[in-house]
Each structure stands twice: as structure tokens, then as C-alpha cells.
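Annex B, item 7. Sequence and C-alpha cells for protein A, then protein B.
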Amino acid sequence: MAAAVGAIIHYLPQAVLLLVIYLLLGGAITWMSVAAFLAGVVIVVTFGLGLGLFFGGFNVAYRDSKNIVDLILMFATWTSPVLYTFNLVQQQAQHIGAEWIYYLYMVNPATAGVELSHTAFWEHLSPAAARPDGLWYFALVGFVISLLTLVVGQYVFHRMEGRFAQEL
């Protein structure tokens, strides 16, 4: 929980700076952009908190699980549209005849959160830029996955916390 709150506190000044730049470039704040931004933040925070609780419990019992978490974080960075656009994945999935890969990619809560942030800040400034069809559907599925992750993470953490004192 502390790590999640700390991450939010570090993110807020960055979001404010991004908002200022967005407004200076001629962006407009709309209800849709506010909804997309808030939905993206909620999805990512919920997902991160669920994973944090899950792996936090395991990290106490199994010290090497930290290495697995580092690997997952690296993998998550490369499997979400932070460094490239979603349509590259869509085109490659269509090229190999495996559209299911694109849909699996889009329901990833991290991908949904990033794409909602892109929509919030850049849709008005570059309306010709490609946006995923069905983004709100993918965001809803990503939110449900985030909630399930939070429930499972809380369950695992609660089950393991009775042994924390012994393990430490």
C-alpha cells in the first residue's frame, strides 16, 4: 500500500506538468479526456496494488521472488504501448493471422491504462492519430481483470501474513 501511495505521489507532479504542456500546445479539457485519464489511473493503480499485495506476500516467504517481480516489470514495460503504438501489435497480429494476440494485448490492464492516458492527452491535439477501436470495452475488461487481481492479491496476502513474523 505504501509503495502504491508513493507511486501516486510521484506521478501527480508529472501529470500536472503533462497537463500544463498539453494546454500550452492547445489541448482542451473535455469530459471525455477527464474520464479517460481517471479511468486509466484507476485501472493501473488497482492492478498494481493487486500485484503488489500478491507478490509482497510471496517476497516475505520466498526472497527470490523479487527477481521474478523485476522480470515481470521489465516484461510489462515491453508489452504495453509505452514505447510503441498499439497499431504495431494489431498489424503484426493480423499479418500472422492471430488477431487473438491483439485482443489479449488490449485487455491487459497496463495497456488499457496507457491507451486511456494517450486518449486523454493526445486525442485532441492529433485527431488523425490512430486510436484503438473499442477502447472503452477493453478498458472495462482491463478494469475487471484489475479488480480480480486485487481480490486475489488481497486473499494471498491475507493468507500469508500470519507467517510474516516467523519468516522475517
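Protein B:
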Amino acid sequence: MPDFGPDFAHELRHHPGLVAGVDEAGRGPLAGPVVAAAVILNRDDCPEGLNDSKKLSAPRRAALEVEIRARAVCFGIGVASVEEIDEINILWATMLAMTRAVDALTRDCAHVLVDGNRCPKWTYASTAIVEGDAKCLSIAAASILAKEERDRMMIAAAREHPHYGWESNKGYGSAKHLAALREHGATPLHRRSFAPVAQLVLI
């Protein structure tokens, strides 16, 4: 079947009022926070070309971020720190970041659509949608905001910790990143609960 991209079907199915989409960026990297975004789109003024952030080129993602921020009803960003990731694990840190993102919305929403197979333990009426960033416009918009926000954080962190290539790998375990870990050790931004970092810290 052809891929027609995300649409508003899920939003309309769950509530005719304000529906937020939520997604995260940064579950897999060895360094840096996990970042979530929540977006309530204006269904009458939605940017064209929204899709799963991983399917978009960097320039297109950056341009869409500007449009989403300007045209959405509202949006919120939530962050869980490296310390929180190491303390409560990446799953619950992701849930925490998502909760903070929805809490940061300036409008109350009737329903929240969450990318993935589970929702945080919160008071919001919500539905998890597997591969929601490729199916649901609100989640696609959230995936773009979360990705762009986290990328900026890692590019800024790369200026303070230049050996690890974060400006390009964004904290993921690339060959350059792993080689720098072995040579220079872990920084305060490394997730010590993640096996590649934990193993090197113990050496």
C-alpha cells in the first residue's frame, strides 16, 4: 500500500476539540538528555509536509520547526536530564519528559496522542499509537520539535566537549564517539547507566 503520510484521522477519532500529539527524541544515545514535545496543531492552519522527523532532511525539519512554532495553537517542551535517566532509567525518564511537555502547554487539551505503545502515568486522557509519528500529524509535529530542540542541545554541548563528535552524532554511539570515550573517558553528560559508558567507566 502507498504511504500517504500522517493525517488528522486519529485526532478526529478521539475528540473534536483540542488534541495534543507527543513524541520524544533521544532514547538511544549514550549522552545528553531525553527531550519530548507536545503540540496542539491548528487543523485549519497546519504546515504542509509534516512527517516522522526521521523521514525528513535536516533543512526541511528546521524549516518545519519554525512553521510549527509559529502556527500551532500551542506547544510545550519537556526535558529529563542525564541524572534522571541514570536514576530512574530511560523508559521512565522518557515518560517524565513527556509529562513535562504536556504540562508546559498553555491550553488545556481534551486528549493526548502519544507515540509508542504506552502512555505515561498521568491524569490526561490519552492513547498510545505505535509509529504515531508516521500516522498522526500532531505526533509528527511533536517529533520534529523534540528532534530539533535536542539537536541544538547536543551541538551546544559539543562546544564544551569537542572530542566526541556530538555536533554530528548527537550523542549516539558512533565509532568516533566510542573511540573518544575510550581515550578521554566519560563527561558529566554521559549516561552511566548505559552499558557502553558503564563498561568504560569500570575499566
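Comment on protein B: The chain is about 45% helix and 15% strand.
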